[in-house]
Amino acid sequence: MAHAIQGRLRLPGDKSIAHRALMIGAVAAGDSTIDHLPDGADVTTTIAALAALGVAFEQPTAGQIIVHGRAGFDWAIPAEPLAMNNSGTTTRLLLGLLANPAGPLMLTGDQSLSQRPMDRITDPLRLLGAQMATTAGHLPIRIQPTAGLQGAAIHLTVASAQVKSGILFAGLQAAGETTVTGPVHTRDHTERLLAVAGAAISRTGLTVHIQPLTRPLQPLHIDLASDFSTAAFWIILATLLPQSQLMLPGLSLNPTRTTLLDILARMGGDFQVVDFARTQTVEPQGTLAVHPAGLTGTTVTATESAQAIDELPLLALAATQAAGTTTIHHINELRVKESDRAANTEAILRACGAAITTSGDDWVITGPTALHIPVHWPKLPPDHRMTMLQVAAALVAGGTVPDHVAAAVAVSYPELLNDLRKLVRTV
Prior knowledge:
Elements lengths: L2 E6 L6 H13 L3 E5 L5 H12 L3 E3 L5 E5 L13 E2 L4 H10 L7 E4 L10 H9 L3 E5 L2 E7 L4 E2 L2 E3 L5 H11 L2 E2 L2 E4 L7 H8 L4 E4 L2 E4 L10 E3 L4 H13 L4 E8 L6 H9 L2 E8 L7 E7 L7 E2 L1 H6 L4 H9 L3 E5 L12 H11 L3 E5 L2 E6 L16 H13 L19 H8 E3 L1
Parallel strand pairs: 1-16, 2-15, 5-6, 9-11, 10-12, 19-20
Antiparallel strand pairs: 1-23, 2-4, 3-4, 6-8, 7-8, 12-14, 13-14, 16-18, 17-18, 20-22, 21-22
């Protein structure tokens, strides 16, 4: 059965920006308004954690939230642990926001999150003076008050926008300048939002400089652009499925998020930005038109992989349909996400007949391969991106549109099934 993706789709607001806007709004002086807020479980986790810390919210209409800022970092100290559930973004950002609380705090997570490394954020925060005790480098994490944080020069060996953001949040509370230098330039949503809110923040090359606050941050008023990582699912499908015609309005076109488009263009992808509007001072956005295209293999550098880490599984699917060999470097970071996404991507694609192998820290994928629906899909962990990859692979292989999707998708994209029904056509 052949499918096509046809239609126009306004996707949920960007989850990465939503987390950051909620946290900045929580410490700002005044009320912040965030429109087009995604309703996934991860964002709900951030709201619940901030509420437990004394932040008040209003949600006057669907997709809108008003954050009543506390004009600083004077948190209420809850008696119960703060539940991070499955949200790694909430955890790593909140650790920076809570680097110097007035009383002891504990952060806990579900089974999956509790297996993910947290010393990559707690170690640099300790260099600023934070008192944090992990459980063998993982959650639960206990935070104690300090005599004060001190600015420091932090050098990251692993590219992580979450870790960088957590350090910047702590740097707002430290005495003296804090700098964060990473191996590559990662997504810069935190820097953009902090600048709009009045923080003294700047960037020199791969180094971000943050000065301590001398007055509270200003409230934000932001209409969130659509989430690019969610859009990647549709972009790949519309590229691979003949007779597709897809329009994605209001899409985040922040260049630190759109590396997938750079790679697809090199492979022969056919897409255009049909309008480009900076409708606010925070994030660039526009409408992306995507058409089917025959792809050729390419080499994805380690820097590109770090910048497109969430999209690599879908890019691997695209590579199975590209002529020649595609090599994707630096995949090991996928192994410490919500699941071992490197191994699970391989399992899904191999089950469909793809030629994908691992060589050290790289994937080598040979195409094009006619995919098929396996007799038995591999058993998958509750990981939203792996569920979406399985759905995409099934559609490329000519399978039917599922009548349900795994509950794991609710973390980021609870509307997925409804949108599949809207856009997938049998041709």
